[in-house]
Specification:
The protein is mostly beta strands. It contains four helices and 36 strands. The protein has helices spanning about 1-20, 30-35, 85-90, 110-115; strands spanning about 45-50, 55-60, 70-75, 75-85, 120-125, 130-135, 140-145, 155, 160-165, 170-175, 180-185, 190-195, 205-210, 215-225, 230, 235, 240, 245-250, 250-260, 270, 280-285, 295-300, 305-310, 320-325, 340, 350-355, 360-370, 390-395, 405-410, 415-420, 430-435, 440-445, 450-455, 465-470, 475-485, 495. The protein has a four-stranded antiparallel beta sheet with strand order 1-2-3-4. Strands 5-6-7-8 form a four-stranded antiparallel beta sheet, with no helix packed on it. A hairpin with an 8-residue loop joins strand 7 and strand 8. The two termini are about 25 Å apart.
Length: about 500
Amino acid sequence: MLSKKINAFCLFTFAFCLVLSARAQNSLTVRDIMREPSPAGMRPDAERLSPDGRRIIFAWNAEGREPRNLYIVNSDGGEPRILVNAEQNFEARTPPQPESKLNYGLIVRDDFVRAREKNLGGVEFSPDSRRILFLQNTDIYVLDLEAKDAKPRRITRTQGTESAARWLTNDGILYQSGGNFFVLNLRETSLVQVTKEANPQAFITIFNASAAEDGRLLAYVVSDGSRQRALFVPNYLDEFTQAPATRRGFTEQKVYVAPTDGSREKPFEINLPKAEGASFIRSLKWAADNASLLVDRVDKDTKRRQLFLVHNVGGKAERTILVTEETDAKWIAPLSRIVEPNPKNVSQILFASEKDGFNHLYLATLERAQPQPNPSGEIRQENASDAGFTTNVSIKQLTRGNFEIDWAKWTAGGESFIFSSTEENSAERQFYAFSTRTSDKAPVYSVEKGMKTNPQIDKTGGQPTLLYGFSQWKQPTELYAVKVCPGCRGLAIPRQITKSTPEGF
């Protein structure tokens, strides 16, 4: 999101420079620059790559106006086509209410805003890539991509707000409503409330929800903000003055894990070592065994970072292992949020750190523990065959130099990963493939140099598809896709997916 805002700002700056250079010709005015639709066209948004890497879906409008429709295209060829028309699919919840003077200046709903409210968002592919879900007007819709006459089916119709919807399995949808998480099973037509801790009136919220790959467990953070202080900022209107409260301060956070089938009345609480001062859970990630959880925590007013592996969550052999710890006299920067468990190897964790002065990638390898035998020397049924890990963790720095890593993902096989860095130029981003087996690094082929943002790779392909946005100082962002296979013969040429910049620009 930040990169898109930066691109938009750069685009405006470029257009403004055009005004100055063409003043004598009077060919472009400020009114031209600020008009809708934009003379630079509409950028593709909310792009998603299917887990098998075959399809790409994005939000766009050929006329450059809101609302945006959903388009679909094959990653290896073909032209994008409209999948869902936002205007035709839209169903108003309630009759429009007259504007209130109390809202004047606070809530502005002109035609542009009303059109944006019809946008389609939150697009997610099912694990088998055969169906998608999306949100419109905070309700959930499902579309079968394999059906001959594919039409969206509205799954929820409530006065509440559904959000954070995603596929849990090929038939199960996880979503948030009223602060809590629910699982809707499309095949069994059942609804299960997974979390019960959220209480917006008491300022207790749930965030960082992360489901295991097999969909059986959900990890989440419960944040208690009841001790925060309210900051009142008055809004002076023509007849009334309102002072809405913005709450500020640290919250008390706890990590819980619950089965998604509703089989437990109470969730498991993850007991982490005591934090130093206030703490913040940056992310929760499940390891390849779907039973071990990675917890990235920053505490002591963002000056200490600890990464934990909680092995065998909720089991008798549950154990918390400190993977890495670092302190900084100033602060632990957001770039080091990268934490990626190997999808095939529970003992390997890829993470980022700025401890050498630049944000680089490190590989942590945990040491396997040996099962403990009985006094007789036998390992019987009551002795777990998976004894977990010892506290010994070896850490190897994989990248180094005067540049930053800002994104990294494992490929499906778990023997290599793709990352993005500023190694070529701080004003550019380049992708590289890194083999953990050979420590070889190879650039992913690119026709031109420029800014590559918002990357995604598929989850199943042996030769993964990489989707990203590409822009230059004179070229707005367009979507590109390329096959990543450094050891293959020949070059994989990136393919431009969208052509949304008008020729006149």
